[in-house]
Amino acid sequence: MNFSFRTATASELAGALQDARHHTLALLDSFVQEGLDVAARIPVLPILNPPLWEFGRIGWFAEWYVLRESGSSAPMAAARSSMLTKGDDWFDANTVPHRERWTLDLPSVGALKTYCHEVLDRVLDKLGRSLNNDEALYPYRLALAYEDYCGERLAAMLQVLGAGLPADIAGRAIPSWAQGEIRFPGGTIELGSREGTGFSFDNEQPAHACYVPAFEMDSTLVSNAQYTDFIDDSGYENPQFWTLAGRSWLMSQDRSAPRGWVRDGKRWRCERFGMPAALAANEPVRHVSLYEAQAYCMWAGRRLPTEAEWEFAALSAHPALRWGDLWEWTCSPFEPYPGFVPGPWREYSAPYFGSHQVLRGASFMTRLRMRSSKFRYFLLPERDDMFAGFRTCAM
Predict the structure, then answer these.
(1) In the chain, fewer beta carbons within 10 Å around the N or the C end?
(2) Is the pTM of this model over 0.70?
(3) DSSP one-letter code for 223
(4) Cis peptide before 206 (omega within 30 of 0)
(5) All domains of the chain, ordered by start, with CATH?
(6) Residue 162 burial by CB count (10 A; 0-12/13-18/19+): exposed, middle or buried?
């Protein structure tokens, strides 16, 4: 399905919604096979949700915006009741605190699959009668984006919990790429997404002119070999490479290498979805926090790109620029664009301005239809569970 969900037609959306559900069910079955569908077996961590809650909310989210015709995520904004008697009590993230998601009396796996299947059937039926324009297709595109977003979160949860991926997903590999540097002349770009060009997230709006000075950027992400040089040069022991927040994080984690790295004699190994794996030297380093990326840059005499520089580079379509293997940390805090207005999913962006950091690009777990040079991903600086790496720029 080589199209963007942002401009997908009704027929393209119908196929994509079914494809997304097939993908999600395969990931859910991986949790079930490991016995991880039981909430009590999932650690209560800020980076995790009980998998059954995550799956049930996918169906509830589509029901809320498409079938219940809600124009806002505000409680009681839906025009119709949920198909589930306690649907809002279980899956409305506005009213269900994170920790309480482990104590909910959720239906069984089979019952939730039936619910989500019925929601999808009704969504597809309604979609078949929908007008083929951006306004009419907005809730369907939002529901698809949410399910694809959750699919990547579920895959990251499998990695954190040391559980295996479905076979057809596990075969995806990140290729090794030659290192290089590209000089960009700079200039003015339109940062963000323009109205009337399909779906866009609220934090991408409004589009506005942004001047980007000339800069030099790596053509690919920092590799395992490059990052190993940083480790071997006492990178984790030398406080001068770390910000104050980074040093505090490092002490709390007792970390001497990226998440999942284990030294095997003179070599480093890692764990990939519950299986030991060798670290390919030229593969991009992954599962690193912003603090680790910043420390590497300080050691190397480099810096992280701004998100405007990243978007400028991506829009240039330079043949040597490689992106889409991992999400990429930038040096830009997650802030609203001038004139920001919250979208129907009110809590998507606004609560995280100022505390989170922008990442750009996509990862090998991001569905192709979701990839966009405009997409602003955002995480807390300490997050290292997602499929994230970084590239550097000249000072």
Answers:
(1) C
(2) yes
(3) B
(4) yes
(5) 5-170 (1.20.120), 181-394 (3.90.1580.10)
(6) middle
